[in-house]
Amino acid sequence: MHVQDAEIVMSAVDPKQYPGTGFPEIALAGRSNVGKSSFINKLINRKALARTSSKPGKTQTLNFYLINNFFYFVDVPGYGYAKVSKTERAKWGRMMETYFTQRDQMKHVFLVVDFRHEPTIDDIQMKDFIEYYDIPYTVVATKADKIPRGKWNQHFYQIKKALNLPSDESLILFSSETGEGFDKAWKLIEDILED
Ligand code: GTP
Ligand code: MG
């Protein structure tokens, strides 16, 4: 897909604030600082439409990015950041649960994990949550540029195994630095939006 037009239309915390236009939505999920917002920026070829930071906790709300007046990427705040109060964590949980379990036009989740490391307990819980609610998903292992190519296979299968993924197609290797996985991700998005 050639992205001609990408704009943020809403930062929402509450369902009343979700866009009412009915376009399909593709949502991100993943640990804080793993690279969710960077993934969106890479795919839409914008350096900083989705705000990123080297410090975890940059994205705080559900951010709806309208692409080509056709579908939304929904960027979300990450989990697993230690310096978050209990109250904030509970607020995050409610916001995410409401969105993920009640949003009909949400068609697919990209669960972003760090290609360098074993998935965390939080990653596994997030994946279980997504499966429990029967939400179609694909895992994106990002920051591939930080691992030498000779080790890619080993990391790929470690992550696949740790998350107990059904097939090789359930895991996309990605890098927002080099564009690795760009074509695969777009091909998948086009398939999702065709259905
Ligand atoms: P929160 O909004 O806090 O949940 O984080 P996020 O998941 O949106 O992460 P973000 O995209 O803000 O990226 C976090 C940091 O990782 C930034 O410093 C990015 O530049 C860096 N980063 C993201 N993707 C990649 C990648 O593929 N390769 C490398 N080398 N760095 C990356
Ligand atoms: Mg972010």
TrEMBL record:
GO annotation, biological process: division septum assembly
InterPro entries linked to this entry: G_ENGB_dom (IPR030393), GTP-bd (IPR006073), GTP-bd_ribosome_bio_YsxC (IPR019987), P-loop_NTPase (IPR027417), Small_GTP-bd (IPR005225)
Lineage: superkingdom: Bacteria
Domain EngB-type G: 22-195
Family to which this protein belongs: Belongs to the TRAFAC class TrmE-Era-EngA-EngB-Septin-like GTPase superfamily. EngB GTPase family.
PANTHER family: ENGB-TYPE G DOMAIN-CONTAINING PROTEIN (PTHR11649:SF13), MSS1/TRME-RELATED GTP-BINDING PROTEIN (PTHR11649)
Stated name of the protein: Probable GTP-binding protein EngB
Record organism: Trichococcus palustris
Taxonomy of the source species: Bacteria, Bacillati, Bacillota, Bacilli, Lactobacillales
